[in-house]
Fold this protein.
Amino acid sequence: MILETRSPEETFSVGRKFGENAVPGQVFTLTGDLGVGKTVFTQGLAKGLGIQEAVSSPTFTIVQVYEEGRLPFYHFDVYRIGDVEEMEEIGFEEYVMGDGVSLIEWADLIREILPETRTEILIEKDLEQGFDYRKITIRETGKQDRV
């Protein structure tokens, strides 16, 4: 599926809809260049989960946990990850196999340990379409047991 947005507010809204429809154990992977709106999308997803707390990229802590929404939300940013083993040290598998919703920014950097079943989201710019234009490509992988 491909969605197009033309403002940060629209990108936020797309993320919010994903959060509203997220189910326990769902894993989202989020990729795209710096400045494409990954954090805006993530903030929308968190809002859709009912999280009121301010959400920002956990660049220096790898994972930020939000528990006040309708489901726990685990926000990973693996941009600065040095080795996949670091993910094991923080309990990555317990998060993504749990009952919360996981979103992993820069997921392509840890592709070898991602769960088979996930929702892959790629956000891209196209300056010919305008400064705020974003192309959001969504792809489901693995077996989907969701209603």
